[in-house]
Design a protein that fits this description.
The protein has 323 residues and is α+β, with helices and mostly antiparallel strands. It folds into two domains: 124 residues, D-amino Acid Aminotransferase, Chain A, domain 1, CATH 3.30.470; 155 residues, Alpha-Beta Barrel (D-amino Acid Aminotransferase, Chain A, domain 2). Helices cover 24% and strands 29% of the residues. It contains seven helices and 17 strands. It is globular, with a radius of gyration of 20 Å. Bound molecules: 4'-deoxy-4'-aminopyridoxal-5'-phosphate.
Length: 323
């Protein structure tokens, strides 16, 4: 993993906060913030990629914002912008922060303050909604040579308790438990099983297996986040390789017998899994399907493919560099 994964925007960076672009140092959030108390926020992680000396493009930003609006609906968080407007705001934020290199956007919509007269307590109604978006420089940070994973003893939250398909801030305590357990045991990441004991996803990415030439990923009813990178991979394999990914229940034993395994996510992009629970996956090195997917995804995000899906890239032109 490389170094440039900054934790927070510098004080002099712009953020979009409740309808205005302001400096990060000027954001004031109180200790009674409902999202802080109860984890009632929803968020996204979106990447932009350098596309020339002073321009960049956002990758599938509209899809990310559409997913955020869906997540917000589950928690009754009001988002006062359409997905298209949020894409424009994101582009303006990148321009203001002069992010000509690869960058990462983190929009967060959340429950803020109790409305006047509403009693203190856990609730979704009677609480105002807020929206904050930050951007950070971020290039690829995962090893292209592959990582090791361990199956977590923590199970993925079921849809009947807290839907994994929504990117809810509080729900990420579940992900944090799994990733913490994995790193404490010396693995790079965790693989979650769901309550039924079937494969769900990794701590912050979706999982794909290759077995006997077939590409398989857990279906949407496996308690997973409906990953946008997962969707890109399914579409790229169909379009480029004529391969139809099987989306279905995946048994734990299939992990042990996979020829190849890889994770997909906006942050990690495509990362080979070369060892699971201390056993090599296949040959113990990234396999041919994984390498094909890595190349196809790289071309897709960096727009070297003229046939790419038209709606996936949003140009962010003429980024002025602020100092
Ligand atoms: N699953 C989880 C739990 C995640 O946090 C992420 C990262 N957003 C993903 C899957 C991958 O989703 P995407 O490809 O949309 O980034």
């Amino acid at each position: 993993m490389s170094a440039d994964r900054t934790a927070a925007p510098a004080a002099g960076q712009w953020v979009f906060h409740n309808g205005d672009f302001i400096l990060a140092a000027e954001v004031r959030l109180g200790p009674s913030l409902q999202a802080l108390q109860y984890g009632t926020g929803v968020f996204e992680g979106i990447r932009s990629y350098a596309a020339g000396p002073d321009s960049a493009h956002l990758y599938r930003a509209r899809d990310h914002f559409a997913r955020m609006i869906g997540s917000a609906r589950i928690l009754r968080i009001a988002v006062h912008h359409s997905a298209a407007e949020l894409v424009e705001i994101a582009a303006e934020l990148l321009r203001r922060n002069g992010h000509t290199g690869d960058a990462y956007l983190r929009p967060l919509a959340y429950k803020a303050a109790l409305e006047p007269g509403v009693p203190f307590g856990v609730r979704l109604q009677g609480v105002s909604s807020a929206l904050t978006m930050v951007s950070l420089p971020m290039s690829s940070y995962m090893s292209k040579e592959g990582i090791s994973c361990g199956v977590s003893s923590w199970r993925r939250i079921p849809d009947s308790s807290l839907p994994a398909r929504a990117k809810i801030t509080g729900a990420y305590a579940n992900n944090a438990l799994a990733s913490d357990e994995a790193t404490a045991a010396g693995y790079d990441d965790a693989i979650f099983l769901n309550q039924a004991g079937h494969v769900a996803e990794a701590s912050t990415s979706n999982i794909f297996l290759v077995r006997a030439g077939r590409v398989i990923t857990p279906s949407h009813d496996s308690d997973i986040l409906e990953g946008i990178t997962r969707d890109s991979v399914i579409s790229l394999l169909r379009r480029k390789g004529g391969i139809e990914v099987e989306q279905r229940t995946v048994l734990r034993s299939e992990l042990c017998t996979a020829d190849e395994m890889f994770l997909t996510g906006t942050g990690c992009e495509i990362v080979p899994v070369v060892a699971l629970d201390g056993r090599p996956v296949g040959s113990g090195t990234p396999g041919p399907v994984t390498r094909t997917v890595m190349d196809a995804y790289d071309q897709s995000v960096r727009s070297r493919d003229p046939h790419d899906h038209p709606g996936w890239l949003t140009p962010v032109h003429a980024i002025p560099v602020h100092h």
